[in-house]
Amino acid sequence: MTRNGTGVRRSIIEIQNDYDAGINNDLEKLMTAWAYIKALPPTDPNSYFMIGGYHGEPFAGEGATNPEWWGGYCNHQNVLFPTWHRVYVYMLEKALQTAPGCEDVMQPYWDETDSYSTTYGIPRALTAPKFTFKGEFPQCLRDKGIVPDDNNAIDNPLASFILPTKITDQVNNDDSVYSKPQGYQTVRYPLSGLVGTPQAQANTYAYNANFFDPNANIALLNANVLQWLNNVTYYIPGCGAGDGGTPRPAGIAKAFSDCLDAPIYTIFSNTQSAAYYGKGYTALEHPHNDIHLAVGGFNLPKGINNGGYDLSQLPDANGDMGENDTAGLDPIFFFHHCNIDRVFWLWQQKQGFTERFDIIEDSADPGTSNGFNGGNGQGPANGQTENETLTMTTALKPFIKTGTTYFTSEDCINIESQLNYTYSDGSLSQNDVVAAARAARAVDSKRSDLHLYISGLSRGGIKGSFIVGVYATKGDDKRYLVGYQSVLSRWDVGGCANCQAHLGISGVVSLNQYTEEEVSGMKFHLEIFGREKQNTERFKQFRTLVAADTPPYKLEVR
């Protein structure tokens, strides 16, 4: 679809609805393009294996073996997060357009905050096991050895990806846990994809055998995603605008809406810079991380915790979206990141930065460097130099613009004039009345400018990604969830020198729904939620320190 010569990226729900109504065959063309690039040889620059692997595995460059580097090209927890991923989705889209007959295909977005997603979960075009072609089956797919069944259906190319070749995790001291054999098929919650060692394979096969019904698995996945999207926290009794136990929005939907209020790009771009500037703004990376964990296999803690810990409902779930190592190999990744880019563009429009934005040069901001940064951040990605200051002209490797020149952030500010695409009118736009009502409620409930700042928390020894829950107590034994932070990590930081050098976690949680007097009578603490079986001793140590009132972190209200 084009508008005045500019390609229009539409919601996958829009495309699905048009197809169901017989309006057009855009969904068939999309499925064709995705099936086509997935069938290309793994060495083809337009193959999904090649493009999906840019994000993490298969690791390349210095990080292929040296754990002091990140072996993927992706940028997280720094100012290049929005722009690197913008160009990443753009290059995937160009690959889709190489499929014969699909030259005008545009990569759709999963509108994660529209009424469908917040009611039902993930659009079925991204989860259904099969896709049935209404018209003639594409010859370009037959040429690649893809043959439909008697119902003119194929395995849904958007539901998973089967590796055409093995991936070997050769990072020193990483125990090969993220190695994947040829023929491995990516998985989502509630399944596990850890198959890098014989023991991991045995554990995973035994666990996954409990989830043999694809439709039941999709239902579990959607239930988990809905919990994340629509999560609530609770007013503490006698505090705030609500009575004790009154819920207030605190899920992904609210976080996406909140990030649009960030006043400058540096704060908007990543969680580290947002925490550094201490203004209480939400970074785009916050809801981004949440979606990864929701699809990859984590449950949120309950809003009110009256004793004990809310362990993950399915502690062995380990979908590929849950860690950066393998996230890019699940097709849903690009529908998610297309939406991240759409929200990025909405922020630019709202804040007046469609033609220009800048990165604030501040050596103390951990989000503007890929160095050690006092224990924060990702570290140098593949293709970067160590201790590199990240700017608007930093090369967004490995994406070539022309010849041997790489894209930079300056090349992708205005998506319409520089990259020739735009977005359809989805949720959170100026025409979205639901988002407007949500913003109005947030203003009405504001009672102060207070925030709780988190620092000093280490992810050392914690296997995999996890969630930091922020709880408050006041005069009783009930622990009320006031916020949380998703932490995208790799599986074994104990054997990862890069992770050990970048172990610090910082964050901020808004307390503006309470007055200064109300907050003065509260006591706050953190809880960790993650892979319980793999982190028994580490979590026990953490909880023992918290219970002894000697917490291994620092909390500050200001």
Give the structure's gist in a few sentences:
By secondary structure, the protein is an alpha+beta fold. It has helices at residues 12-20, 26-39, 48-52, 81-96, 115-120, 139-142, 198-208, 214-229, 252-259, 265-269, 271-277, 285-296, 332-351, 415-418, 433-444, 497-501, 516-520, 536-547; strands spanning 2-3, 6-9, 130-132, 153-155, 232-234, 247-249, 304-305, 400-402, 405-406, 421-423, 451-458, 466-473, 479-487, 504-510, 523-529, 554-557. The protein is built from 18 helices and 16 strands.
What does this entry look like structurally?
There is one protein chain. With 558 residues, this protein is of the alpha+beta class. The protein is 31% helix and 13% strand. Strands 7-13-12-15 form a 4-stranded antiparallel sheet. A hairpin with a 2-residue loop joins strand 8 and strand 9. It is globular, with a radius of gyration of 23 Å. The N and C termini lie far apart (49 Å).
What amount of the residues lies in strands? 5-15%
Total strand segments: 16
> Mind telling me the C-alpha Rg?
23 Å
Distance between the termini: 49 Å
SS element count, helices? 18
Overall mean confidence score, pLDDT: 88
Helix content estimate: 25-40%
Shape: globular
Strand order of the largest sheet: 7-13-12-15
pLDDT < 50 stretches: 305-311
Coarse structural class: alpha+beta
* Largest sheet: number of strands, sense, barrel closure: 4 strands, antiparallel
Layout of SSEs?
Layout: E1 2-3, E2 6-9, H1 12-20, H2 26-39, H3 48-52, H4 81-96, H5 115-120, E3 130-132, H6 139-142, E4 153-155, H7 198-208, H8 214-229, E5 232-234, E6 247-249, H9 252-259, H10 265-269, H11 271-277, H12 285-296, E7 304-305, H13 332-351, E8 400-402, E9 405-406, H14 415-418, E10 421-423, H15 433-444, E11 451-458, E12 466-473, E13 479-487, H16 497-501, E14 504-510, H17 516-520, E15 523-529, H18 536-547, E16 554-557
Parallel strand pairs: 2-10
Antiparallel strand pairs: 1-2, 3-4, 5-6, 7-13, 8-9, 11-14, 11-16, 12-13, 12-15
